[in-house]
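Troubleshooting: if your tokenizer reports a length mismatch, compare your output against this known-good record of 741 residues.
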Amino acid sequence: MLRHDLPASLVVFLVAVPLSLGIAVTCGAPLIAGLVAAVVGGLVAGPLGGSVVQVSGPAAGLALVVAELVRTYGWRATCMITLMAGVLQIVLGRFKVARTALAVSPAVVHGMLAGVGVVIALSQLHVVLGGQPQKSAVENLLELPNQIANNHSHAVAVGVLTIAVLVLWPRLPRLNVVPAPLAALAIAALTAGVLGWDIARADLSKGFADWATPVLPRGDWHGIAGAVLLVALLAGVESLLCSVAADRLHDGPRADLDRELTGQGLANLVSGALGGLPVAGVIVRTTTNVRAGARSRWSAILHGVWVLLFAVCFGWSVTLIPLEALAALLVFIGVRMVNLGTMRGLHGHGELPIYVLTMGAVVVIGLAEGVLLGLGLAGLFALRRLTRVSVQVRLEPDDRWHVVVTGSLTFVSVPSLTSNLRAIPAGAAVDLDLNVDFMDNAAFEALHGWRLEHERTGGTIAIDEIHDEWYTSAASGTRVSAAKTPPRAPERWWLPRAYRRGGPLSRIPVRHGNVWMPARTEAGGPATGSSAVPDLLAGTVDFQRRTAPLVRPFLTRMARTQETSNLFITCADSRVVPNLITSSGPGDLFTVRNIGNLVPRHGTSPPDDSVVAAIEYATAVLNVSTITICGHSRCGAMAALLSAGENASGLPGLGRWLRHGDHTLARYILSDHTGEDQGPLDRLCRVNVAQQLDNLRTYPSVARLEGAGRLQLVGLYFDIGAARVHVLDREGFNPVATCPL
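Known-good structure output:
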């Protein structure tokens, strides 16, 4: 295990040192406090936390809170607040409330971090420009034009040089062994020293002599208690969200969130006692750790050892670093905290306003006020979703009106409900489907009053309740539970067979040849005294009994010819069901499935006639207007490519087929992490979709039709675990937008 964790720990160490120093500068704390927090994060949170790959240390997201505490109570009192926050985290962890912390809207958390990033960037930008930060973010913004116009000192040159290196360094693949923050500080320090620039330098000359023991803060205990609670909650929530995110990046043991909260509490207790900054799980260092190959806790622990050795043996080297370079690093970090990928994801779920409001309020008003406003808006959004109702009214061919009410029927939805019901003419026959999971008294009174009035005018109403009988119970005077009840799950064809054991499908007798086979038992096994009946055969019987009568009319009409507009190329993976994820039926998709949804390039030797024949037939005979390549997460073919064929050893046919993925692998090596993927395999699966679209364009007929505007190529990516379809555009993959019912 150490052969993976040892090099990973060195990479994380090289990232942690400059970030820890920069965050200490932002907080107004001694530089040694940042290194102490990094050491404690490795040596205490590493072995005692609940995540095996998470790396803890000083977090930029807490910088504003700590800076305010230092200004209000002083540094030593801030250390005591950190210690007490750690004790509170330990208590919360022991009471196993970690999962409760995840109830906080991620939009609020990400908005808070983005707002903190903007405030840090605006503040430190003045240092980069050779000036002094103002008291607030708004003042920093207003003062910025004056700073830009009047300051052109060596400090500005150092700051601009540092930011330039941070931006350009990741674009130099051969140099990526050295982390960009370390390279930027080293180049800035070397350039300033060689050219003799007049700059301020970081001061760590006293080393551990700057250690400060905590003292009790003086002042209003209500404010002190609020500060302890704020530090404990912010650090705890950030650590827990980081643990959840880290689980998506590796295949090892899942995080124990209660243990993680307790471990973070112990780390903050120790860090506060030793004069360090508050400690939290940090996503930048955790992501770096996973990408560097970490497999266990030893990487985080060893990174703490390396930081300790650096502080003891090489602390003097920090004095070579220009303060303006550290400020530039913080500007870069602050800007990166406004994550466009996160914003796109929140926009897809309709939560972007929460993010924007929280971020803006943190910048303009303050951290606590911004978080409270964000939580308030998140609560309003949740209430709106909980009370959302859909009322559909349509006239059927037999002159009966069909009304479908879906959602939660509360007093909020009464105006919409009554407005739609008034559209039904008096005396009409009505079929009313109530697909509701809750109905309060106001909604019942409105619905019941309309029913009585409609029946008084000679109309008829047939009510069918899909969930529990809310209306029937209320009409009969039966007490109705105020809590929502789950719907009765009907038998559905799209459920995997393992989820249908014991259901109606498992109890259908099946004829095999001239013999009728008994049904399965309730447990899903074969009936006593009979051999097992194949699931597929049972499924065909179910199709003949239930589905065939429904689809026979239009299948009869399309039996002579197929008229489809889409060639759909996807993987043979059993978890990917094209008709399910595209809501398609018979005649909609001309489907090609193979291992890895690969399209051999035109002229490949030896050729693959199967895929080529499908492309030719679809474009020349069926005249399709779209060709879709659909990849998916956790693809076994891509895993085999990533393992350099090790996963395909002993499978010669598969090995030959995967040669068609060589261009995908080459494209993956040259690609950069965009923030939308969840690790190397996920990125390769996404890259593969884009590459197969390019492979399609090597076919002259496809290129000609696309150029003429008669054919469109579409890339889809199916995230199996999230049951979410993403579509490829010029900027990358984005979740398919959903519309309210």
